[in-house]
Please model this.
Amino acid sequence: MVTKNQLTDKFRSRISKSKKGTRSRMLRNRPQRTGIVYKVLSVKPKKPNSANRKIVKVHLLFCKRRIACYIPGIGHTLREFSRVLIRGGGVPDLPSVRYHLIRGCYDFNALEKFKRKHSRSKYGIPRVLHGI
Model:
């Protein structure tokens, strides 16, 4: 026999999940947002990992907020006042970095230091066919 409390508890949990929101709150239910870079820096990740991860501090347009974004890929030419496009998605070993930059949009070029052979689809790089 189901009690009244059990029924209301299910209903309450369903409501709280839907109203909770996402971890990438600054996007405000948009897939991407534009911003202006105001600082480029590198930070060290959490305990078991060791490297220098490249991040930027971005001032969002049409919203007076400043957030930290991760720079994907190898190499970049970003500097102060560069215009960038931001998507959601955090970096597991960097606390408080919950956004990624999108390569190939605005001032963030898609070119890297070397030519990609694997995982090209993220950057829209065509496949090089050998022997044709």
User: Anything to note?
Assistant: The domain at 23-101 is CATH 2.40.50.140 (OB fold (Dihydrolipoamide Acetyltransferase, E2P)). The beta strands are 32-43, 53-60, 66-70, 83-88, 99-101.
